[in-house]
């Protein structure tokens, strides 16, 4: 992750340091497509006092429409729009015995030097042959032999897709993964033991452009976005669990999709160790700046922030901090999503139960109702 600095302007294009793959490209495409002739205009003719109010009402509506069109122009055009036509999500197009051979496009480290561990953003070219929807996962089969089954390939590892169906190139031919390199440290020596490192995560983080990769899937329906573009989405992530939410937010705020114009509320809670560990932070901060009425963003930095009790700040502490708002939104039909390590859920569940009891509610009954209404979405690993 690059050091955070104010954005600068180069040849009329705003450049934001530290963006993930494809973001500066998106910004460039946005601004290169604009000209002074694109500026929205609303004209107000000379009016008598008698007709002034009726014309003002009409022209105000014209102005609002023009400004909305101008805002939409700032989004990136995507293709092929036929990807919007499917009524059901694609599922298991490629299986472990017959995976699809895709190609690595790029591997980019996206955390700073003080982050504990390394996380990479990996763009994969599937040629449009392994389409997916936001919230789904790809399976990856790392090269080599399964040590537990001599002669057999490794088992499939699942990774949440960190891009929209159009990918980081906006042409429907790529998919992106957010992968933390899994390493093992000997508790006695404190040194890394390469023999016990995560096979697939290290393969992905060490990959070079042009290398081949075996994909399965896509899989999953639990984390799919609802059809309602006015819905409220509360997203809780720890670490690389932010992957599907990056896809949601790019679809909501970056891409120009005629049949999907987001007018709801997206609220992201992201828990990581420290500032250097924040993932896609510049993207999210830009959405916060450009769409303050539709996006909220709260970070929980366990090694830099304290909760109200003086302990480390975790996502459940942020949830408790905003619990009244969150419960009201859930009562109003909001969807809530959780993605990250499975160890995140007990603390979150305990917090939600405690808050519910303080409000005089039965948490088990409330949770049952949220599940029944399909408002509750969990994907942990």
Which characteristics define this entry?
alpha/beta; six-stranded antiparallel sheet; five-stranded parallel sheet; Ferredoxin--NADP(+) reductase protein; EC 1.18.1.2; oxidoreductase
How would you concisely characterize the structure shown here?
This protein has 381 residues and is α/β, with parallel strands linked by helices.
Structural class: alpha/beta
- Kindly report the oligomeric state of this protein: single chain
Helix percent reads 25-40%
Order of helices and strands: EEHHEEEEEEHEEHEEHEHHEHHE
Tell me what portion of residues adopts beta-strand conformation: 15-25%
Neighbour order of strands in the largest sheet: 7-6-9-4-5-8
What is the overall silhouette?
globular
The profile of the biggest β sheet is: 6 strands, antiparallel
Number of helices, counting only DSSP H or I runs of 4 residues or more: 9
Q: Mean pLDDT, rounded to whole units? A: 84
The strand count comes to 15
Rg on CA atoms, Å: 23 Å
Low-confidence stretches: 1-71
**First-last Cα distance:** 25 Å
Describe the 3D structure.
This protein is 28% helix and 22% strand. The chain has helices at 23-32, 49-73, 199-206, 243-253, 281-290, 315-321, 323-331, 344-358, 363-372; strands spanning 8-10, 13-15, 76-77, 100-109, 119-125, 137-141, 157-160, 174-180, 212-219, 232-238, 255-256, 265-272, 295-301, 335-340, 376-380. The strands form four sheets. It has a six-stranded antiparallel sheet with strand order 7-6-9-4-5-8, covered by helices on one side. It starts with 7 loop residues before the first strand and ends with a strand. This is Ferredoxin--NADP(+) reductase protein. Its EC number is 1.18.1.2.
């Amino acid at each position: 992750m690059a050091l955070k600095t104010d954005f600068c302007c180069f040849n009329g294009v705003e450049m934001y340091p530290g963006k993930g793959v494809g973001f500066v490209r998106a910004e460039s495409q946005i601004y290169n497509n604009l000209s002074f002739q694109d500026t929205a205009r609303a004209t107000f003719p000379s009016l008598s006092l008698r007709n002034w109010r009726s014309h003002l009402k009409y022209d105000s509506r014209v102005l609002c429409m023009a400004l909305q069109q101008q805002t939409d122009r700032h989004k990136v055009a995507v293709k092929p729009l036929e990807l919007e036509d499917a009524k059901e999500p694609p599922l298991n197009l490629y299986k472990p015995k017959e995976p699809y051979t895709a190609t690595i496009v790029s591997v980019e480290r996206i955390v700073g030097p003080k982050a504990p561990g390394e996380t990479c953003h990996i763009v994969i070219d599937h040629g449009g042959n392994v389409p997916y929807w936001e919230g789904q996962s790809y399976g990856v089969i790392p090269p080599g032999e399964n040590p537990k089954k001599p002669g057999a390939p490794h088992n499939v590892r699942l990774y949440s897709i960190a891009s929209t169906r159009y990918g980081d190139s906006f042409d429907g031919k790529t998919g992106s993964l957010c992968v933390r390199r899994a390493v093992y440290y000997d508790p006695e020596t404190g040194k890394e033991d390469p023999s016990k490192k995560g096979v697939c995560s290290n393969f992905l983080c060490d990959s070079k452009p042009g290398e081949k990769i075996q994909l399965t899937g896509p899989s999953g329906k639990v984390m799919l976005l609802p059809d309602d573009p006015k819905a409220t989405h509360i997203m809780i992530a720890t670490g690389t669990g932010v992957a599907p939410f990056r896809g949601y937010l790019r679809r909501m705020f970056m891409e120009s999709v005629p049949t999907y114009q987001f007018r709801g509320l997206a609220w992201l809670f992201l828990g990581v160790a420290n500032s250097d560990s924040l993932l896609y932070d510049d993207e999210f901060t830009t959405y916060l700046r450009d769409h303050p009425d539709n996006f909220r963003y709260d970070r929980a930095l366990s090694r830099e922030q304290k909760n109200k009790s003086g302990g480390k700040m975790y996502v459940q502490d942020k949830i408790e901090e905003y619990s009244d708002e969150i419960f009201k939104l859930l009562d109003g039909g909001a969807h809530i999503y959780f993605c990250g390590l499975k160890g995140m859920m007990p603390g979150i569940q305990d917090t939600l139960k405690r808050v519910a009891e303080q409000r005089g509610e039965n948490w088990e009954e409330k949770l049952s109702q949220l599940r029944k209404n399909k408002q509750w979405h969990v994907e942990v690993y």
